[in-house]
Amino acid sequence: MTSSGIFKRRRHARKRGRAAARAMRAPHGKRLRRQGRMTVSVHPLFVLFGLFFFLRGELFLFLVCTAAALIHEFGHALYAARIGCRLDRILLLPCGAVVQGDIEGISLADEIRLALAGPAVNAACAVLFVALWWLFPDAYAFTDTAAYMSAGLCVINLLPAYPLDGGRVLYCVVARFRGALAARKVCVVCSLIVAAAVLALFVLSCLAAVNFSLLFFALFILFGTFGGKDCRYTRLMPDFARTLARGAEVKRVALAESCTVKRALSFLERGKQIEFAVYDGEGELACVLSEREFFAILQRADIYSPIGTYINGGF
Questions:
Q1: Residue range 265-279: average pLDDT?
Q2: pTM (two decimals)
Q3: Which label site among 71, 128, 156, 235 has the fewest CB atoms less than 10 Å from its CB?
């Protein structure tokens, strides 16, 4: 084939890719523009909880706990971004925080990894502080509370109860073998057992030094089991206008049509605009997708399906 024929074929492939992306983007344009940024909300009880610690002279402990909880939630966000989801809202509650969004369509395996990402970040922070003590022993007096709090949050969040991450892992494991209904029943029973155990510890604490944190934690579990919402995420959608206003380097990646949407997501890089050159099974260029066109596909795509499915207009 002559070079002129190759260039014509590539131009035609680009036109087909852009046309397909425009067709998929049009019905969702308004919905995408309405997506907000990540927000942090504070429940009124959280304020009262902070006031309680302030009156007891433990405000620093409360602030460290809040910081560790926020780092925990951002750990979830980091993994969520890798699978095409975005942390939408953090709600600070007494003894913890919950996140909101939409994770519909992800696999149980990814949901387990998403749940474990938060405790993993807390564990990493605890290890980092311990390593810091070995290098700079004098830092212990300033970082011991943060280290113990990070380790504590890691362990506590692995308890098999809602809305803790261990409860979500338990749900996914049971749902894998017994179905969603059985998983929900098992999680409710386990959550009640854990809440009852924490309440028992609170009662025992009343015999010596009353630990109201145990009471709040038990109520947190009960609220998460019967009155709260699941941890949820929304599909990722960047602010193209702001990115382009700052200027960004263009990153070009070659993919086969058989490559999954999830795999394509892993090539995204903060501060760079990406272009996907998609090739068919014979090694010929099928189309070139801009980042905006790729995200238009992402809004409706099953992230485990081949990207070629959506380039060819199949849904």
A1: 81
A2: 0.64
A3: 128
